[in-house]
Amino acid sequence: MKGFSFVRSRGIAFAVSLLLLVAGMVAWAVRGLNYNVEFTGGTAWTLTFEEQVQAEEVRRVLAENGVGDDAIVQLAEGGRVAIVRTPHVDEATKQRVLADLKEKVAPVHLDQFDSISPVIGREIKQRGLLALALATVGMILYMTVRFEFRFALAAIIAMLHDVFVTIGLFALLQWEVDSSFIAALLTVFGYSINDTVVVFDRIRENLRLRRKEPLDELVDRSIRQVLRRSLLTGTTTLLALLAVIAFGGETVRTFAGAMFIGIFFGTYSSIFVASPLWYVLRQWAASRETQARATG
């Protein structure tokens, strides 16, 4: 990577980021996020059948019991496990559905049954958004205290880039969003800032040691000095998350998937977005100062 300039290639990196953000935000606006019952309210069932079944058979029984509207049925384990999402269901309806499934489809065991009212779902969503807002404010304060404002601004933009790319891809792919998604976004916040701080620390140190070096070369040098560390840390974390996605089961897949996307783009943004963006802000500020002196 010695001959490659991260600063001079910033236009390509910015274009890729902009394309991802626009695609994700359009999907979010048009399709929305695929919230599970924790946010929308309703009932989540996990059913294990003693033989392979078809999703349509399960939907038919739900419809016969008045809960087929808006029901979502996903099969796993070769058609023996059904993950079902329905509107709110009372105890009597639950027992009727289980009896009909056993009689008309196949012997079945109810592994999990979670029923959440729409009011509680809205409260969970509001608390999640509040947590994200507070985390953003906290990161802005931390970066402003630790670095100059331009460093802080570039880091916050890169952090928000990682978070919104993650949200946008979840909207685009319609992956299910539960409360663990909020936890994953908060973790991505911290990871993104930490990765960016490592690069910015090196830039700040080199600014002190190499005062006469051209700024674009200094930024490229700083990135190259921490590149190996960033790539190794990111790669090992991503490999661990791939193992969780592959073998961890449905309950942790949303968290691990959001973390995988966020950390992948967090590593990318700390190298290709945050530092070149700081360079642009620094050059813009220097240009403004020069113009002010010339006119003053």
Describe this structure in words.
The protein is of the alpha+beta class and 296 residues long. It folds into 2 domains: 194 residues, Multidrug efflux transporter AcrB transmembrane fold (Up-down Bundle), CATH 1.20.1640; 75 residues, Alpha-Beta Plaits, CATH 3.30.70.3400. Helices cover 72% and strands 11% of the residues. The chain has 9 helices and 6 strands. Strands 3-4-2-5 form a 4-stranded antiparallel sheet. Strand 3 and strand 4 form a beta hairpin. Helix 1 crosses helix 6, helix 1 crosses helix 9 and helix 6 packs antiparallel against helix 9. The mean pLDDT is 86.
Overall strand count: 6
Text of the CATH class of the largest domain = Mainly Alpha
Q: Structural class, from helix and strand content?
A: alpha+beta
Q: Strand count, sense and closure of the main sheet?
A: 4 strands, antiparallel
Q: Provide the low-confidence segments as ranges.
A: none
Approximate helicity band:
over 70%
Using only C-alpha atoms, the radius of gyration works out to 25 Å
Count the DSSP helices: 9
The CATH superfamily name of the largest domain is: Multidrug efflux transporter AcrB transmembrane domain
β content, as a range? 5-15%
Q: How many structural domains are formed by the residues?
A: 2
CATH topology of the largest domain: Multidrug efflux transporter AcrB transmembrane fold
CATH architecture of the largest domain: Up-down Bundle
